[in-house]
Amino acid sequence: MATTVRAAQDADAEAIAAVGVDSWREGFRGLVPDHVSAEQAWSVEQVRRRLSTRDSDRRRVLVAETEGRVSGFVVVGPSRDAGAAAVVGEVMALFVDPTVWRRGVGRSLVEASLASLAADGFDAVTVWTLAESDRDIAFYEALGFRRDGATQRRESLGGPPEVRLGRPVRRSGRWM
Questions:
Q1: What is the dihedral of CA 111, 123, 126, 6, to 10 degrees?
Q2: Which of 59, 93, 161, 166 could cross-link to 77 by cystine, CB 3.0-4.6 Å?
């Protein structure tokens, strides 16, 4: 199964929304309150808005294609954390179609994200993930991310606790 990663195009909006909804439903089941709607977060209109502002604030949206269809996406850019140094980037969203989980799609997206962040001058990268998602934490840790002790709760997710992980953009770099 060959996966390629490329910059998202406006024509990808519907496929990105579908992956976002499917991955949210499967990955957040039991972790995010049921009243928080995947369809609201990843509606086609929301995705089109996100795509229309990409690159304007150094954000990038990358998609993975597997067997000719969008199988995942990632949004990266400058860290949104208060007080973060200008050289710290963030994986803001990473969603993979559940039918291709554990087949390297997520890894390909993160690796492409790190290359994109390095090209944009970032030295380190962080990601927030649900504290109770052992699967997600193990995924990021396998890619060299480490917890730094920071936690938060976002109302947009219904308030479940999140933990922050980080790593250098390049393996030889420093984190924290």
A1: -30
A2: 59
The amino acid occupying position 36 is: V
Report the distance separating Cα 25 and Cα 28, nearest Å.
6
**Under a CB-based contact definition with an 8 Å cutoff, are residues 106 and 72 in contact?**
yes
* pLDDT for the residue numbered 115: 96
pLDDT of residue 55: 65
Please give the model's pTM, rounded to 2 decimal places.
Answer: 0.91
- What Rg do the C-alpha atoms of the chain give, in angstroms? 15
> What's the confidence (pLDDT) of residue 49?
86
Report yes or no on 143 lying in a domain. Answer: no
Asked if residues 151 and 163 have their Cβ atoms less than 8 Å apart, the reply is yes
- Asked if residue 167 belongs to a domain, the reply is no
Q: Is residue 75 domain-resident? A: yes
Strands (E), 50-118: 60-66, 69-78, 88-96
- Number of structural domains in the chain: 1
How much is the pLDDT for 171? 65
Q: Is residue 148 part of a domain?
A: no
Which domain does 22 fall in, by range?
3-123
Q: What angle do CA 148, 108, 4 make, to 5 degrees?
A: 155
**One-letter amino acid identity for 5?**
V
Reduced to 3 states (helix: H, G, I; strand: E, B; else coil), residue 110 is: helix
Residues in the chain with pLDDT values less than 50:
none
